[in-house]
């Protein structure tokens, strides 16, 4: 095997890796063409109908602005056909990245609040899931999550909907939305019941808040994985706990930069998390909104943080082992990863392309109200 490889070799290796996506939101996966079509059908949402204007619309000032844009797109998803289109579009994109399986976050409470019936949502998910497998060879599973900003009522209704309907492919129970001012502990009873019913606990924590939110997700919600978890990097005791108990982090580097939670990719704590033995997985979160792809996330951490091909293979394996896939499918994917020839360590990387340009290079710190740039 040659000791020196090119950027093209690395891209080919990343493409060849069979991948699993553990943190992607169904609404946030809507491709540009899909969003434009929805915007033209639903002008009342205020989403631009011009491609250039939409690109500017997706330029986020901060996390709160991102949420407002996300909710505007969500409001245009009105019925079964819209849901199915999102699911099939996501599967097509995953297939292009050689992703074989994804656990997709769906927020039923918001769709029902916007006037969609439960049957429309479930039919769209089921039809889309079947088409994803038949047309793209991608298996999809669902994580139903609570919109935390809507409080305990949303938690109760999300749980009741999940347990009453139990659609095929439902594996996880999550918690999303703003973190600051939305305590994790208030949702503990719903997570306890969900876990007792066989659903896995996958809450967001430590994306826009400090490590205390992650501790709460672990202790109060029984988290088996953490959505984002970036601020764990500042708490040595938490790093040790996550590593010891194999609680994986669903890390989304480009998302963190685009929403201003990390100033630059170079400042992202992926390397620190790995060096402390934390199980890290790479994910896209809301890929078209952030201009992200799953392959691009792997290449980004290689180019900016110096991760080598063998480490990228380990990240892919982490996603497989941290998923809720059947044991025999996990074993087959891990064997396929192990069988790939790994390029040598001396990677001649090309010029950086398609990497986030927002943020600054100033030092910063995490606190309970998120990432703070030092002045």
Order of helices and strands: EHEHHHHEHHEHEHEEHEHEHHEHHHHEEE
Radius of gyration, Cα only, in angstroms?
Answer: 19 Å
Number of helices: 17
Give the CATH level 1 class: Alpha Beta
Morphology call: globular
Which range best describes the helical content: under 10%, 10-25%, 25-40%, 40-55%, 55-70% or over 70%? 40-55%
Which strand order does the major sheet show? 2-3-4-5-6
**Could you please say which CATH topology applies here?**
TIM Barrel
Number of domains: 1
**Assembly state of the chains shown:** single chain
What is the H level of CATH, i.e. the homologous superfamily? Metal-dependent hydrolases
Tell me the span between the first and last alpha carbons: 48 Å
Estimated structural class: alpha/beta
Strand runs, count: 13
Low-confidence stretches: 350-375
Report the sheet with the most strands, covering strand number, pairing sense and barrel closure.
5 strands, parallel
Mean pLDDT: 90
Beta-strand share of residues:
15-25%
């Amino acid at each position: 095997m040659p000791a020196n490889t090119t950027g093209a070799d690395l891209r080919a290796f990343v493409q060849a890796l069979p991948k699993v996506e553990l943190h992607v939101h169904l609404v946030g996966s809507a491709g540009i063409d899909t969003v434009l079509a929805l915007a033209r059908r639903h002008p009342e949402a205020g989403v631009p109908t011009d491609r250039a204007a939409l690109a500017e619309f997706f330029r986020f000032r901060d996390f709160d602005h991102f949420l407002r844009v996300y909710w505007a797109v969500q409001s245009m998803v009105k019925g079964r056909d819209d849901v199915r289109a999102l699911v099939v579009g996501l599967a097509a994109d995953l297939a292009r990245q050689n992703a074989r399986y994804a656990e997709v976050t769906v927020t039923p409470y918001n769709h029902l609040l916007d006037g969609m019936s439960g049957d429309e949502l479930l039919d769209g998910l089921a039809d889309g899931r079947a088409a994803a497998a038949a047309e793209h060879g991608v298996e999809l599973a669902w994580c139903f999550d609570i919109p935390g900003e809507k409080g305990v009522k949303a938690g109760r209704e999300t749980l009741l909907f999940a347990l009453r309907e139990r659609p095929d492919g439902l594996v996880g129970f999550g918690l999303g939305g703003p973190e600051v001012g939305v305590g994790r502990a208030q949702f503990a009873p719903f997570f306890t019941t969900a876990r007792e019913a066989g659903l896995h606990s996958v809450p967001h924590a430590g994306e826009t808040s400090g490590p205390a939110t992650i501790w709460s997700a672990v202790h109060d919600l029984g988290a088996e994985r953490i959505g984002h978890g970036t601020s764990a990097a500042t708490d040595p005791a938490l790093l040790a706990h996550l590593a010891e108990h194999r609680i994986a982090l669903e890390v989304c580097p480009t998302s963190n930069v685009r929403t201003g939670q990390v100033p630059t990719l170079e400042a992202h704590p992926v390397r620190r998390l790995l060096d402390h033995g934390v199980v890290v997985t790479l994910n896209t979160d809301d890929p078209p909104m952030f201009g992200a792809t799953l392959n691009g996330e792997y290449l980004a951490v290689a180019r900016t943080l110096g991760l080598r091909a063998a480490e990228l293979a380990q990240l892919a394996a982490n996603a497989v082992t941290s998923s809720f896939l059947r044991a025999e499918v996990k074993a087959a994917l891990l064997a396929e990863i192990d069988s790939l020839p790994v390029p040598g360590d001396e990677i001649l990387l090309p010029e950086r392309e398609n990497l986030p340009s927002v943020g600054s290079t100033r030092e910063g710190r995490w606190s309970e109200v998120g990432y703070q740039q030092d002045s």
